[in-house]
Design a protein that fits this description.
Blueprint lengths: L2 H26 L4 E4 L8 H11 L5 H10 L3 E2 L3 E7 L16 E7 L2 H4 L16 H34 L5 H32 L7 E4 L1 H39 L1
Antiparallel strand pairs: 1-2, 1-5, 2-3, 3-4
């Protein structure tokens, strides 16, 4: 095997490993989107009601999003979290000179919630099904797992190529990484579109802002790494095969 192709193969493997780690970390963490809001220091009846509704298994889309807006919420593909004071007061302290302890309360999305229909008016089951948001949500949940699966399958083929001491099977590895990159890019696009459509229907309260978190950024970085690994795998396998064919023809001649 030519040193050029071996170097390209090693670099592609490193890129593939990094993108797999990034994608796995992105799926497993809860910071795809983050809200920033004024801290609620008191435990009024309204706040207690919002906390209880958020923790309920029957919380609908509007209910848990209202809590995310008010209490510095974060949202991932699997869980939603809010930040609440650890020591709450029935009154609002007149002056605070030092920071107080807060705790993070998280609730997981059930499998049923992941595939539940989204409504035109969030929280209103009589407003009709919003098919666009429904399928965007399902795609943003499923595509990252498809991407990871394709990369793992590609890694198995690459391992077989190493055992056989041949680069030609890595063309399949490159194609699988290309498909994985498309799945990752599709997941990121679906998530952005879904968030934008949600905020059009549920406007952020005053003094509340939202931004994409570092988990989302990891997924964004993972996609180009997958594309670069794919290009290197395909180039190394195709060029090596071409040179081998020419050399064989030359010897025959």
């Amino acid at each position: 095997m030519d040193n050029r192709f071996a170097t390209a193969f090693v670099i592609a493997c490193v890129l593939s490993l990094i993108s797999t780690i990034y994608m796995a970390a992105s799926i497993g963490t809860d910071f795809w989107f983050e809200y920033r809001s004024p801290v609620q220091e008191n435990s009024s009846d309204l706040n207690k009601s919002i906390w209880a509704d958020f923790a309920s298994d029957e919380a609908d889309e509007k209910t848990y999003n209202d809590a995310l807006f008010r209490f510095n919420g974060t949202m991932g593909l699997w869980r939603r979290c809010i930040t609440i004071p650890q020591n709450t007061y029935w009154y609002s302290p007149p002056e605070r000179t030092e920071s107080f302890d807060v705790v993070t309360k998280c609730m997981s999305f059930t499998l049923n919630e992941q595939f539940m229909e989204k409504f035109v008016d969030p929280g209103n089951h009589n407003s009709g099904i919003d098919l666009l948001r429904t399928y965007l949500w399902r795609c943003q949940f499923l595509l990252p797992f498809v991407s990871l699966g394709l990369m793992c399958f590609g890694a198995v083929i690459g391992l077989c190529a190493c055992i056989c001491r041949s680069l030609y099977p890595t063309i399949a590895t490159g194609i699988l990484h290309l498909l994985a990159g498309l799945c990752t890019l599709g997941s990121v696009s679906c998530y952005v579109a879904g968030i934008e459509l949600l905020h059009q229907k549920l406007e952020l309260p005053e003094n509340v802002s939202g931004e994409f978190g570092w988990s989302f950024c990891l997924a964004c970085v993972s996609a180009p790494l997958q594309f670069m690994a794919s290009a290197l795998f395909i180039w190394a396998a195709h060029t090596n095969r071409k040179e081998y064919t020419l050399m064989k023809a030359y010897r025959v001649a």
